[in-house]
Amino acid sequence: MGGDKMGKRWLTLIWLCLLAVLGGAYNREEAAQAGAWEAGMPEQTKYVALTFDDGPQPETTERLLDGLRQRGASATFFLVGERAAACPELVRRMKAEGHQVGSHTWSHVRLQGANVQTILEETGRAQQLLTQILGEGSYWLRPPYGLLDEQERALLDVPLIKWSVDPRDWESRDTAKVVEAVMGTVQENSIVLLHDIYPTSVEAALQIIDMLTPQGYRFVTVEELLALNGVEPQAGTMYRTGTG
Ligand code: ZN
Q1: H or E element that contains 161
Q2: Ligand 1 mean position to 144 CA, how many Å?
Q3: Which pairs with CB-CB distance under 8 Å and at least 24 residues apart come from 168-176?
């Protein structure tokens, strides 16, 4: 008799535990769904690449790197060689934190219309410096002003990266205007042009990330964006978006 009673008690206990576990699982799932609903989370992830030209610049670039790290966002930096030479530790930090580092020539000269020697010197010197700081690698080029003729492109042995969203942040130097311009035009696979030498642009970039994240956007490097779309980057070819 005693054994029978004990058995019943155990059964009741097991049954209660089961109910508690099932109830908990149900509530967790429900809560997660409600949370996603409240955040307006869409099913599909959209990828974009934020790119920053003309740096690095100690204070503004550091603030940007801190903000990107807090948000788990990656970006691409097209560095001016002579500026990178002055703060190699910032360049190393970019790479160590998962960002892509590229070149924006040695001294920010306009390559379009320049002679062959200037083109090769300006790109080669920046390339050499990045190799010195970061080691062997392919340091993609963003030509200053995004301009390069067909024959000039053929001189270069790395992929060339333009953009599809340009809020002209260098002109307005106004955080709200930059945010508005990007939010109005950004879409899946956009490459966004910004400059991390302006505090207003750094602030705008972080606000943009905070506004786009709940919409399902994730921030990756240009290299990652092309790879996600199955694009194999070719030397001397100019890319404007993640799909080409
Ligand atoms: Zn530039």
Answers
A1: strand 160-161
A2: 5
A3: 169/193, 169/194, 169/195, 169/198, 169/200, 169/201, 169/204, 170/195, 170/198, 170/201, 172/200, 173/198, 173/200, 173/201, 174/200, 175/200, 175/201, 175/203, 175/204, 175/207
By three-state DSSP, how is residue 97 classified? coil
Ligand 1 mean position, distance from CA 126 (Å): 14
Residue identified by tokens 């602030």 is 203
- Residue type, position 91, single letter: V
Average pLDDT along the chain: 90
Q: For 34-65, write each residue's pLDDT tens digit.
A: 455 555 555 689 999 999 999 999 999 999 99
Structure confidence at residue 125 as a pLDDT band (50, 70, 90): very high
- The pLDDT tens digits of the residues spanning 71-101 come to 999 999 999 999 999 999 999 999 999 999 9
Catalytic residue among 99, 169, 195, 196: 195
Q: Which residues pair with 100 in a beta bridge?
A: 76
Ligand 1 centre and the CA of 108: distance in Å? 6
In angstroms, rounded to a whole number, what is the distance separating the alpha carbons of residues 49 and 130? 21
Active site residue 53: yes
| pLDDT cut 70: percent of the chain above it | 82
Which listed residue (53, 54, 169, 196) is catalytic?
A: 53
Going from the Cα of 145 to the center of ligand 1, the distance in angstroms, rounded, reads 6
Give backbone dihedrals phi and psi of 201, rounded to 5 degrees, phi first: -75, -35
Letter for the amino acid at 243?
A: T
Is 4 catalytic? The answer is no
C-alpha 193 to ligand 1 mean position (Å): 10
